[in-house]
Amino acid sequence: MIQTDSQLAEILPQLERVDRIAVDTEADSLHCYYEKLCLVQLSFGGQDYLVDPLAAIDLAPLSAGLTGKELVLQGADFDLRLLRRSMDFVATRIFDTVIAARLLGVREFSLAALVEKFFEITLTKGSQKANWAQRPLPKHMAEYAMNDTRYLLPLAEKLEAQLRERGRYDWFQQSCQRQLEQTSVQRVRDEDEAWRISGSGTLDGRTSAVLRELWQWREKEAQAADRPAFHILQNQMLVRAAHSFVAGEVPDFRHFSARRRQAFRAAAEKGLNLPETQWPVRRRRAGVRPTPQTERAAEALRRRRDAVADEQGLEPSFIAPRGALDAVAADESRSTTLLAPWQRSLLQL
After folding, report:
1. Is residue 190 domain-resident?
2. pTM to 2 decimal places
3. CA–CA distance, 26 with 41 (Å, rounded to integer)
């Protein structure tokens, strides 16, 4: 485990000598409110490394060392966004093994499935609820983390060879470039809509107003405690509480402290006292009803896609998901932003 600046400095010269590096990350979002980078796994030069961002270590040299390299990742979206937020690192070249496998028609493309398929090695399963912020990191978790990058470089070599053999390496590069472009766009949560949790869609105006206030109360409590919001109160309990307050009942959450219970009731009272003009407006489905002509165009695109998918041995949704086809049917010019060139070519767009 690399936990000091001097330890990190020791591997940087080796990092400089290679062009392709396997990278993965682990984050803690199940045990705290603010997601944090807990581990960076690296494999290159025949060695596997774990870098500890939670230690007193400057990650800027690592970010600089990775700049310009081709990163091999298993499903790049989450890792690239996390590295950008946590290390201010922006990748310029990637090899996404998931994209490569899907372009070869592989239907089981988890890392475990790919390692089993190409190397006949069975990886031990890890817990989806593991706390990656715990230190010292248990040995079995460290081993699991290193396995996330240990096989990526040889896997990339095998996948690349098959892609080139089948004439699909250009398709692969286009899809990876598109992935880079998509992850460069920062996702911003709409605070006016974030409170619309599962179960809120059928609520009347007053109950929605109460739920919105209770949700905002829960966010503040979660931030203050640095715990996930569901640790404070789960969504279904939040909806149930909103119903109870509107019915004139006070939910009995005895596990709350006196302070938290008082703030909870105050939030509900605020929602109950809001004038009707300030109640949330029931959300309507976005967009307009497609015309018969658009529906026919979308159906024609789906038939064309399915035929091409069968011919190429690819999943239809990988060539173009239904939402993209519907959008292109309504406005063909959107194909350039929704689909990679190889996808448009197969669909004759």
Report:
1. no
2. 0.86
3. 8
